[in-house]
């Protein structure tokens, strides 16, 4: 990762979710908070971020962060640009998270997403994640169904 990558990720993911799902600025605040925390509290032995590029352009990202629960990591901010979908980038990003989690000694990975993010949910299912919790909430200007997914490493 290079300086400026996190700002790019926050911006692009916010624009993408605004265009595709009509989400408001609340999502940008959440994404910026996640990015800021990643930069400020980065633990290179336990955390990692990946930026996917195609033809010299950033087309996606994902982050794996430690949690307060021993042995458990959290997958954060997976996204792939619409024009880059169908090239296996999302699967590769998730696979990188899984490989690093095993190497770092994690036993479990969790993630939080929303039911409307169907493409991401399919990636998680193919990677062996299982839905463990659903809860309705109002965020980003919409009524949504939040989901927690998990898998063993």
Automatic annotation (TrEMBL):
Name of a matching Pfam family: Acetyltransf_1
Keyword tags: Acyltransferase, Transferase
EC primary class: transferase
E.C. number: 2.3.-.-
Molecular-function annotations in GO: acyltransferase activity
Key word rRNA-binding present: no
Chain coiled-coil ranges: none
N-acetyltransferase domain sequence ranges: 6-151
Keyword GTP-binding (UniProt): no
Protein name: GNAT family N-acetyltransferase
Organism the protein comes from: Hydrogenophaga bisanensis
